[in-house]
């Protein structure tokens, strides 16, 4: 990684954030101005709820004006105003939660970001990864899986945090903003991390800003600039060490010699009765002694051009990278894939045994009992296939939503590439599973095998049904943000499909005011196609398709089903793109 050609001073002026709450309006930040300089590390301290994360969200332009929240003020980089997309052109935001894919190794994780976000050939991208690993001292764990809920063995909390930072560093940003990078780390690991960030800021002229809760005295010594926040207002901003100690001692707040200054200032800011009486003094002193000075400093910054970092790899390359990663994810966490296959085998066996060599009308052509059995079997197969793929597909997007949102906010790839890259892999079990299911029960039951065409058509219908479940699952998964809601809502898709499918209630008996609804539920076409195929040249008299009043030919149903699948996939892709929320 080369020296930064684009050093940036980040400034903010008169920033006020107001939210509407049930109790009325609440100011999270009140008219704050400040400056974060290049080649320096700036630490923002304050007690819990002081507004630190809110300030970072404003700096990275992640809060939008809306009915519920109002943001005023000016954010500038080298005296040029910034907007959300422009921030990601030169800066990066490492959020408090380390959102990483647990099935990747540290190196693969950084490689993924480097492949998608850095220009040059593969050798150059690999070099960036190696350098990032070296800077963040991740050599020892580079080939260890990240780990988490499903993959139990993983890297430590400190390594996780550094990987999270590394994921953003590979793009060589000029400004790095971090929300509590040391949370959850022991004091020595925290020290090493801040020391690394400081070295990085100096050596590469980066602007590093972070919030921190309780730094040790060793960490405190390293800060170049400190901002102290109390109830959304600054009470100090400027140099660290002697400067801040002198400022407060001049006001009668002397830090005991043997005490960690960070602890002392945190105790001054903590909301209790005694401190609350001092708050007006802090604000008044800041207003009279520092505010003007900071504003002057901001005005004196020189205007210079920001070299925007707009590199994005071609769409097909993004698609390939996402598909490769999804495949690895399935291989290393195969539980869902295995469950789908085992489910297909067990369900195939159950159906095969229950309907074993069921009567096809050749012995008792007029038997309504046998005809009903066969109709029931065909309808059950349609519903069963749909449900077997709907559930896993409805949870697949919500379960990866955080990773997607994080990568999307880093502008790593197009959301369309993400959607189709995942689809390319997730479609595989949805094709294998119905084939397996069909192979087991088709011959056990003794379905229509008069021609090879009939056999293939049956299997084709099973696959279409499975893909229908996938596309319906994707719709739920891309609309609902969490797994539980997506699963709870799936009966809303299933029940009307079953009721209007043409088996439980004969379509001719539907009231005229409601009969049009049946055309909206695709299972009707699946049942129609599979029944039309089964009863081609049937022995049953009269023909079950006539009794069921099935109106379409089997190929007409296939075209309609394909239309449904493609249409639903397009809608779910659109929902995913529109539902992207910025992580705050
Ligand atoms: N959308 C919102 N609506 C109402 N109140 C909010 C909203 N977002 C934040 N707050 C409140 O604003 C205050 C500042 O929140 P913020 O997350 O910036 O604090 P913080 O200093 O980062 O705290 P911590 O150190 O605990 O993370 C808190 O009291 C929080 O409850």
TrEMBL record:
It is found in: Membrane. SMART domains: AAA (SM00382). GO terms for molecular function: ABC-type transporter activity; ATP binding; ATP hydrolysis activity. Keywords: ATP-binding, Membrane, Nucleotide-binding, Transmembrane, Transmembrane helix, Transport. The chain crosses the membrane at residues 335-356, 376-398, 419-443, 455-475, 487-504, 558-578. InterPro entries: AAA+_ATPase, ABC2_TM, ABC_transporter-like_ATP-bd, ABCG_dom, ABCG_transporters, P-loop_NTPase. Gene3D superfamilies: P-loop containing nucleotide triphosphate hydrolases. One of its GO terms (cellular component) is membrane. Signal peptide: none annotated. CDD domains: ABCG_EPDR. This is ABC transporter family protein. The lineage of its organism: Eukaryota, Sar, Alveolata, Ciliophora, Intramacronucleata.
């Amino acid at each position: 990684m080369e020296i930064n050609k684009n050093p940036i001073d980040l400034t903010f002026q008169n920033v006020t954030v107001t939210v509407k709450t049930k109790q009325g309006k609440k100011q999270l930040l009140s008219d704050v101005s400040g400056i974060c300089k290049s080649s320096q590390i700036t630490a923002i301290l304050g007690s819990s709820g002081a507004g630190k994360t809110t300030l970072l969200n404003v700096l990275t332009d992640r809060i939008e004006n809306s009915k519920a929240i109002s943001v005023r003020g000016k954010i500038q980089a080298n005296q040029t105003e910034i907007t959300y997309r422009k921030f990601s052109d030169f800066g990066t935001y490492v959020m408090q939660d380390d959102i990483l894919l647990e099935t990747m190794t540290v190196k693969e994780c950084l490689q993924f970001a480097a492949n998608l976000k850095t220009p040059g050939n593969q050798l150059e991208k690999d070099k960036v990864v190696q350098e990032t690993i070296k800077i963040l001292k991740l050599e020892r764990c580079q080939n260890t899986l990240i780990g988490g809920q499903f993959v139990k063995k993983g890297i430590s909390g400190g390594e996780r945090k550094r990987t999270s930072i590394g994921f953003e560093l590979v793009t060589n940003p000029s400004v790095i903003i971090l929300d509590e990078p040391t949370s959850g780390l022991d004091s020595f690991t925290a020290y090493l991390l801040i020391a690394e960030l400081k070295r990085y800021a100096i050596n590469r002229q980066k602007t590093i800003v972070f919030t921190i809760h309780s730094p040790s005295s060793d960490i405190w010594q390293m800060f170049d600039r400190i901002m102290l926040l109390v109830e959304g207002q600054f009470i100090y901003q400027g140099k660290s060490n002697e400067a801040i100690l002198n400022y407060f001692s001049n006001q009668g707040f002397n830090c005991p010699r043997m005490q960690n200054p960070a602890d002392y200032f945190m105790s001054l800011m903590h909301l209790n009765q005694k401190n609350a009486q001092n708050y007006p003094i802090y604000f008044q002193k800041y207003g009279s002694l520092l505010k003007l000075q900071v504003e002057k400093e901001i005005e004196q910054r020189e205007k210079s051009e920001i070299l925007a970092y707009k590199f994005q790899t071609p769409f097909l390359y993004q698609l390939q990278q996402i598909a490769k990663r999804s495949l690895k994810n399935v291989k290393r966490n195969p539980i869902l894939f295995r469950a789908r296959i085992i489910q297909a085998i067990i369900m195939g066996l159950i159906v095969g045994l229950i309907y074993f060599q069921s009567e096809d009308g050749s012995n008792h052509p007029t038997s309504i009992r046998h005809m009903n059995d066969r109709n029931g079997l065909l309808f059950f197969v349609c519903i069963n296939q749909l449900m077997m793929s709907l559930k896993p597909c409805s949870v697949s997007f919500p379960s990866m939503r955080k990773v997607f949102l994080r990568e999307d906010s880093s502008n790593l790839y197009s959301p369309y590439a993400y959607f189709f890259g995942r689809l390319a892999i997730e479609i595989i079990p949805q094709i294998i599973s119905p084939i397996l299911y069909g192979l087991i029960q088709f011959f056990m039951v003794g379905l229509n095998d008069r021609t090879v065409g009939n056999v293939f058509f049956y299997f084709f219908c099973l696959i279409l049904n499975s893909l229908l479940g996938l596309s319906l699952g994707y719709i739920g998964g891309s609309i609902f943000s969490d797994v539980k809601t997506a699963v709870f809502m799936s009966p809303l898709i299933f029940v009307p499909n079953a009721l209007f499918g043409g088996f439980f209630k004969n379509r001719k008996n539907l009231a005229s005011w409601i009969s049009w609804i049946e055309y909206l539920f695709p299972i009707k076409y699946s049942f129609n196609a599979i029944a039309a195929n089964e009863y081609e040249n049937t022995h049953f008299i009269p023909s079950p398709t006539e009794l069921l009043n099935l109106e379409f030919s089997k190929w007409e149903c296939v075209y309609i089903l394909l239309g449904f699948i493609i249409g639903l996939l397009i809608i779910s892709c659109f929902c995913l793109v529109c539902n992207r929320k910025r992580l705050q």
